[in-house]
Amino acid sequence: MLRRFPLIDGHNDLPWALRERAAGDASKVRLAPIDPDGTDLAQPVTGTHTDLPRLRAGGVGGQFWSVYVPSSLAGEAAVAAVLEQIDLARRMIVCHPGDLEIALTAADVDRIFSAGKIASLLGAEGGHAIADSLGVLRTLYALGVRYMTLTHNANVGWADSATDEPRVGGLTDFGREVVREMQRIGMLVDLSHVSPATMRDTLDVAVAPVIFSHSSALALCGYPRNVPDDVLARLAANGGVCMVTFVPGFVSQECASWLEGLKAEAAGRGLDPRNLKQLFSIKDEWEATHPVPRATLTQVADHVEHVRRVAGVEHVGLGGDFDGTDDVTVGLEDVSTYPALFAELLSRGWTEAECAALAGGNVLRALRGAEAAAGR
């Protein structure tokens, strides 16, 4: 089935994983060129969720590669780091011309998929990467970035994050200007990681479809990174898409509660629970006395079906967040496992046409909508 229509995943952090492998402690972001030739993706790559053999086994026809940089970076350092991540991702793609090709438009995705290759799009994760500059934003688009997540785990000066203390109550006037400029140039606005107030403010001003590149349903798992039902319901009028993620803490309430316990323990020790390096420094010790619950593929399917019920089948997609998390959902351990999820949905009565919409049809429609709005 996935050979006939493209499966387009909304978020994969392999470029950052490659940087970590090459630079050692990537949380310090060594600002030096990283050579993707150091890892041959045509062979199985240990320690990652992603390589070309597994992408092929998973039926992936298109991938948004995240050009992520940590929220701890700001100003010129954040801009330099995101430019290097774009450079790394684009060279990674060029290194594998038989399998990967950069895509800048929805038409490119169709053409590349028809040629038997994996259409490779870029998404910037976190508005801190533009350093409050619309000029930098436009430059990222010129370099191939086709969505930007407005925040990551921390607030930016013009938008509140889901996992930080509210500061501005959603979007500031400049935040609205960022959204308008993104839609003027044809860049998708990504609302994963942002607070519900930021989601609602964005939908109030949006004239083109928005996406959630890797989020799940708040009604099924009360982790703050997930999307409330009232926001999901607004996607129908907007034309947007919620791309359900596979991160255990966003899928399973038990996993979310375990993670909140870990964060509370970190805060109690004077650590910053938003800092993943600090948080994971106590993870093994916490896990020794608090066994990790496991999320399951059937729970991911439940999230897909919930988004479908609330937003409609034309407004749901998939964004696994592979290589962006250490923990994985049982049955969805790496990029080779997507067919198992579609098998589960087919067993629940999904039609092939509905699976095609979920796999990639919906996000391609959103991208075409962004392109059309920019044309106007």
Judged by helices, strands and strand pairing, the structural class is alpha/beta
N- to C-terminal distance: 35 Å
- Which class of the largest domain in CATH terms? Alpha Beta
Proper CATH architecture of the largest domain: Alpha-Beta Barrel
Number of strands: 9
| CATH level-four homologous superfamily name of the largest domain | Metal-dependent hydrolases
Average pLDDT score: 94
Q: Work out the helix count.
A: 15
Strand content: 5-15%
Please tell me how large the radius of gyration is: 19 Å
Helicity, in percent?
Answer: 40-55%
Report on this model:
This protein is α/β, with parallel strands linked by helices and 376 residues long. It has 2 domains: 7-247 and 294-375, TIM Barrel, CATH 3.20.20; 253-293. It is 45% helix and 11% strand. It contains 15 helices and 9 strands. The protein has helices at 14-23, 52-57, 75-94, 106-114, 134-142, 173-185, 196-205, 229-238, 248-251, 253-268, 276-280, 283-289, 297-311, 338-347, 352-375; strands at residues 7-12, 60-66, 100-102, 118-125, 145-149, 188-190, 210-212, 241-244, 316-318. Strands 1, 2, 3, 4, 5, 6, 7, 8 and 9 form a 9-stranded parallel beta sheet that branches. 52% of the residues are buried.
